[in-house]
Design goal:
The chain has about 210 residues and is α+β, with helices and mostly antiparallel strands. It folds into 2 domains: about 10-95, Ribosomal protein S4/S9, N-terminal domain (Ribosomal Protein S4 Delta 41, Chain A, domain 1, Orthogonal Bundle); about 100-185, RNA-binding S4 domain (Structural Genomics Hypothetical 15.5 Kd Protein In mrcA-pckA Intergenic Region, Chain A). The protein is built from 9 helices and 5 strands, in the order αααααααβββαββα.
Length: about 210
Amino acid sequence: MARYTQADCKLCRREEQKLFLKGTKCFSNKCPFEKKGYAPGQHGRTRRFKKSEYGIQLREKQKVRRIYGILEKQFRNYFAEAAREKGITGENLLKLLERRLDNVVFRLGFAPSRKTARQLVRHRHFTVNDQIVDIPSYQVKAGDEIKVREKSKKMNLIHTSMRRVKEGKQYNWLSLDKPNLTGVLLEIPSREEIPTQVNEQLIVELYSK
C-alpha cells in the first residue's frame, strides 16, 4: 500500500502552518517549523510568488489530506461520497473524515497523533462495540463505543498520550471514560464543533472545475 515516507515536518512547512502531525514534538522547541518556517527544498527560503486561484484551492485540499493522513485516491472517494449525501458537501466531507476510527482514537487522546493512532488501530489494539477493528478508515457511527483492548491497557504509549487529556469531555460529540480507557461517539459533530482550521469551500470549488 502506498504511503508517505518522508519527514512529516516538511508537510507543515510546505503548507506554511503547523498541521500537528508529530504529536507532542509539535508543542516543543524541537519543532522544525519553529526553526524553519519557510517551504522545504533548495529554494524554499527565497521563492516567493503570488498564488493563483487554483493554487490556493489546491493547497487547501492538500492541507486537509495531510492533516488526516489521506491518500489522493482515498480523498477523491470521500469527496464523491460527501457530494452524494444531503447537506453541504464541504461540511459532509469533514464529517466523514472526523468519523474515521484513527481520527476518533486521536481525538479521544489514546494516541499523540493520527499517524500513531493509525498504527495502533492496524495492530488491533482497539474494539468498536466489543468487536476488534483493525481498519483505520472504519466509519464510526453515533453511539459506537471505542475501547482499548484489555491486553493493550498497559501500553506506555497510550498512557503517555492520555496524560495530556483532562477528565470528562474534550469535544461535545465525544464522551471519554479515562480510567477505563473507553470512549463513545455521542453524535456526528457539526461543522462548528470540528476544530480543523480549513476552508472546505475551496476544496468544493477545486473539484467542481
